[in-house]
Amino acid sequence: MRFTLLVAGAAVAAAAAAYLVPDRDGLAAAVESAGGLNPLLAVLGAWVLVLAMVPRTALAFVGGLLFGLGPGAGYVLAGALLGASTAFLIGRFLGREFIDGVLSREHPGRCGALAARTARLDRWLGRNGIIGVVMVRFLPIAPYGLVSYAFGTSATRYRDFLLGSAVGVLPSTLGYAALGAAVFGPSAATMGVAVVGGLGLLSLVVTIGLHRVRKNEPHPSPGPSRPDNLNMVRR
After folding, report:
1. Distance between CA 31 and CA 145 in Å, rounded?
2. Signal peptide location in the record (predicted)?
């Protein structure tokens, strides 16, 4: 029941965000009327919108558009980490018990093979959560909020998830905020192109490095097979 609530709640939040997110004029009016509360409202807005699975890159672009490169990236990064943490804890509370129960049971045929592979991945995330989170954050596989909910249902530790999220989203947040700031300044345009180009190179380097770390990870040696044990007993 809790896992069903998690899936349904995420779907409702995503559907609501598609209709409730204000347009550019609405955002500009909100910023102008907020005055000194702009930083707080920007962080809270990013927090809520991440939970509703609004793309974080779009939030970073809008943050740069409204507040400039530095403040916009900072506000969105803070709100995105708060939203990711909340989504992770919701996923952990509502979905981890169900996933753990599914993976611990035996399943016939292809379902069994899929469950075994998923269980191995789950155990790997429990040991190497930071590497797994950084890899997923660098590669735009799924929406930022949805991935946060999913990691909550896995064996990933919270501290690994939070640290991996911070490392994985910082370059792209700066890049898209710089592009948003470029709308109002030619100097920011140069910064935006440089940051986005560097982001692509950095993503490639980090992905290759993490792949090598995972490849070189020691694996436990298999124990003796059953026939060998039987031969030893006979001798």
Report:
1. 24
2. none
H helices of 105-157, where? 109-127, 129-138, 144-152
Kindly tell me the number of DSSP H helices and DSSP E strands found in the chain.
11, 0
Domain boundaries, the chain: 2-217
Query: What is the per-residue pLDDT across 70-96, written as a single tens digit (0 to 9) for each?
Result: 899 999 999 999 999 999 999 999 989
Tens digits of per-residue pLDDT, 105-116?
Answer: 877 778 878 888
DSSP state of 221: P
- Angle at 203 (CA atoms; ends 79, 146), nearest 5 degrees: 40
Average pLDDT, the chain: 77
Task: Output the six-digit token pair for 220.
Answer: 């436990």
Cα 1 → chain centroid: 25
Q: How many residues does the chain have?
A: 235
Residues 6+ apart with CB under 8 A from 63: 42, 46, 71, 72, 73, 75, 76, 177, 180
Question: What distance in Å separates the CA atoms of residue 169 and residue 190, rounded to the nearest whole number?
Answer: 21
Q: How confident is the model at residue 211 (pLDDT cuts 50, 70, 90)?
A: low
**Whole-angstrom distance, CA of residue 210 vs CA of residue 203:** 10
